[in-house]
Design brief:
Layout lengths: L4 H14 L1 H33 L7 E5 L5 H9 L4 E7 L1 H11 L1 H6 L11 E6 L7 H9 L4 E6 L1 H43 L1 H9 L4 H40 L5 H4 L6 H23 L4
Antiparallel strand pairs: 1-3, 1-4, 2-3
Length: 291
């Protein structure tokens, strides 16, 4: 018995209708299992984007007094053998960074004639001297014209650890929920097998191959996974739009960081792909060697 598209899709639709409650449950669980890690990846991705803005994270930051010569002070700091390079960040550049990091709050500062940020010198130490960033900052504080200098080593390390923990929590919870979704798909397929047992036996008596018997169940489960993944992506985008809309009306200096940008298309496409894979795996586990 050859497999044709009409038979394949018709049988898959019949299987979905015969266990509609289990089908809806499987789609919902797959959507939930992919929405949770997708949400945490979205949040951690926005935080990670903030951490990488403007090049490598500085090891220390020196804030200059208003009349100080930034170039002269930067040259003195760069003369330290422990320093790899320095970056002068003017008040205007700091304002531009602020507007990119806080798009809603940055728009509120558009009418300012002068930047409200002081000029700073960002210091990047050599890899072998990372542990001495506090000493580099202390040395910079002794230079005339430097108002303050603080080491960023501890904050940067804790910030990166927080991002990794956020991503790890997303993948862990997503893994648990995806396993539950796979088991739900397997349960739905087993129920469909019981309902179509007589039809399967007739197909075998007529000479149907195992592939012809299994293919509609594979397609049905893969379609459930695809719908679950697409639903997860739609819910994730809806959450992003609602959060961005709320922050545009009521700007918040911290929450704006988490909702600056949506997932790029390769990461977004992973949700439907992962859902399809989860559904197909559930069907394979359910069918076994001989359904």
């Amino acid at each position: 018995m050859a497999i044709n598209a009409r038979y394949l899709f018709g049988e898959a639709w019949s299987i979905a209708r015969s266990g509609s409650r289990q089908t809806v449950m499987a789609i919902a669980l797959i959507a939930l299992g992919l929405y949770v890690p997708g949400l945490l990846v979205l949040l951690s991705g926005n935080l990670g984007r903030l951490a990488t803005m403007g090049g490598p994270a500085p090891s220390a930051v020196a804030t200059l007094e208003a009349p100080a010569d930034a170039k002269e002070i930067a040259d003195k700091i760069a003369a330290d053998p422990r320093v790899q390079n320095v970056r002068i960040v003017t008040g205007a550049e700091a304002l531009d960074r602020f507007r990119k990091s806080y798009p809603d709050l940055g728009a509120a500062l558009a009418e300012l004639k002068e930047a409200p940020f002081p000029t700073t010198v960002e210091i990047v130490v050599r890899p072998a001297s990372v542990s001495e960033s506090a000493k580099v900052a202390e040395a910079a504080r002794r230079i005339p014209g430097v108002e303050s200098a603080e080491s960023e080593e501890g904050f940067d390390r804790r910030f990166q650890e927080a991002i990794r923990m956020l991503r790890g929590a997303g993948f862990f919870l997503g893994g648990l929920l995806t396993v539950a979704a796979v088991l739900s798909v397997a349960s739905a397929i087993r129920l469909a097998l019981d309902l179509h047992r007589d039809e399967i036996e007739i197909m075998r008596l007529m000479g149907a191959t195992e592939t012809a018997v299994r293919a509609p169940f594979w397609l049905n489960a893969a379609a459930e996974g695809l719908l679950g993944g697409a639903l997860a992506l739609a819910l994730l985008y809806l959450t992003y739009r609602l959060a961005a809309s709320g922050l545009s009306r009521h700007p918040h200096p911290v929450l704006s960081l988490f909702w600056a940008r949506f997932l790029d298309w390769p990461r977004a496409a992973l949700l439907p792909v992962a859902g399809t894979a989860a559904g197909f795996i559930g069907s394979v586990l359910s069918l076994g060697r001989r359904p």
